[in-house]
Amino acid sequence: MQRQVNEGETFLPDFCAGQSVLVVVVGAELLAIVLTLVGGLYDDLSVARFARVSLFVQWVALSSAGVLCLLKHWVSALPRAWASTLVVAVVVLATFVFSLAWRLALAWVVATTDPDYAVWDQRIWVHVAIAAVITGVMMRYFYVQEQLKRQERAELNSRIQALQSRIRPHFLFNSMNIIASLIAVDPDTAEQVVEDMSRLFRASLKEAGHEVPLADELDLCRRYIHIEQLRLGDRLQVEWHLEGLDQHAVTVPLLTLQPLLENAIYHGIQPLSRGGTVQVRAEVRDNMVRLSVSNALPEQHTQHGGNRMALENIRHRLTALYGQRARINARELDDCYEVEIVYPAWRG
Questions:
Q1: pTM
Q2: Distance, CA of 204 to CA of 171 (rounded, Å)
Q3: Parallel, antiparallel, or unpaired: how do β-strands 288-296 and 336-344 relate?
Q4: What is the per-residue pLDDT for 2?
Q5: What's the rounded Cα separation, in Å, for the pair 293 and 269?
Q6: DSSP H or E segment with residue 7
Q7: Per-residue pLDDT tens for 281-333?
Q8: Alpha-carbon distance 96 to 278, whole Å?
C-alpha cells in the first residue's frame, strides 16, 4: 500500500520558501564569520579572507538548498533517518564539488604543480568533514524541534478535545427541562429541540481543529439560539450582520462562534432583567476573515473564568491552525462587550 505523505509534517524546513532561503543565507554568513575568526588564530585576519570564505560557504549553502527544494516532495516521503542522511549527503557532495573546483581554480591561476593544490588535498576533506558535522547537528536540531512541536500539538489537541467536548451542565439541564415542558403542549417544538441538541453534541465530539464552512457553524449557532430563546423568551434578541459574505466559501474552525454566543448570553444577556441584544458580524476584508460577537453589559459584570477559558481555547485553536496571523480581541466598549476573531481567509 502506498504511503500517504503529509508535507506539513516533515521535520525539514521548506527550502523553496523565501523565508527559509533567507535563514540559509544568514546562517551561512554567520558560519563564514566564525570560520574566518577561527582561521585568524593561525593567520592574519583580512577582509579578503572573509570574502573568500563567505563566497565559498554561500555557494555550498544555496546550491544545497536549491537541490533540496527540487527534491522536496521526494525527501518528505522518506523516513526521517533516510531524509536526514540524504540532506547530509547533498551538503557534503556540494562541499566536495566546490572545494575541488576551488582548489583546481587556484592551481590554474598560480600555474603550479605543488601537491598543495592536488585533487586529493587534505583541505578538501577538512571542508567535507566540517560540512558533515555541521549538517548533522542541524538535522538533529530540526528533528528535536519537530518532536517538540508534535508533543505540543498532541497536548494542545488533547486540551482542545477536552474543552470542545464539554457542554455546560446548566445548558444540558435547561434544555432537558424545556423538552419536558413542551412534550405535552407542543411536541413538534420539543422534537426540534431534541434535534438541535443532537446536532450540537455531535459537533462537540468531532475532531479538534476541524474546519467547516461558515454556513455550517452559523447553523449550529442558530440551533443553539433557538433553544436559548425558548428559555429566555423576548429577553434574548439576536442581530445578524452577514451581508455580502459567501458563507459556503469561508471556512471557520468548528465551534468557534457558538462558544462566543454562549458566553454572550450566559454572562451578558441572562443577568439583565430586561434582556438585551447579541450582534453577530462576519466579513472578509484584506484576505482576512473577521468575526465578532457583541452583547449588552450587565450593570455589575466581571470577567468570568468560563469566559476566559473559552477565549483561551479559541485562541489556541486559531494559533495552531493559522499561526501568528490569527488573533482574538476582547474589549469593553461604551455599552457592550465585544469579542473579535481575525484569521487568514486561506491557510498557507
A1: 0.54
A2: 14
A3: antiparallel
A4: 34
A5: 13
A6: none
A7: 999 988 899 999 999 887 665 555 445 667 777 887 787 778 778 889 888 88
A8: 68
Under 8 Å between Cβ of 308 and 317: no
At 238, is the secondary structure helix, strand, or coil?
strand
Show the domains of the chain with their CATH numbers. Answer: 7-154 (no CATH), 165-344 (3.30.565.10)
**Nearest in space to 315 (alpha carbons), one of 331, 336, 294, 329:** 329
The per-residue pLDDT for 7 is 39
Q: How many other CB atoms sit within 10 Å of the CB of residue 141?
A: 11
pLDDT at 97: 85
Nearest residue to 340 via CA among 270, 256, 275: 256
Grid cell, residue 133, equals 558535522
Question: What pairing do the DSSP bridges indicate for beta strands 251-253 and 236-241?
Answer: unpaired
What nine digits make up the cell of 329?
480581541
- Tell the residue number behind the cell numbers 523565508, with chain if given: 19
8-state DSSP, 186: -
pLDDT at site 218: 92
The confidence score (pLDDT) of residue 8 equals: 41
Burial of 1 (0-12, 13-18, 19+ CB in 10 A): exposed
| Alpha-carbon radius of gyration of the chain | 30
- Pairing state between β 288-296 and 276-285: antiparallel
> In which residue are the cell numbers 482576512 written?
288
| Nearest partner of 183 among 175, 172, 191, judged by Cα | 191
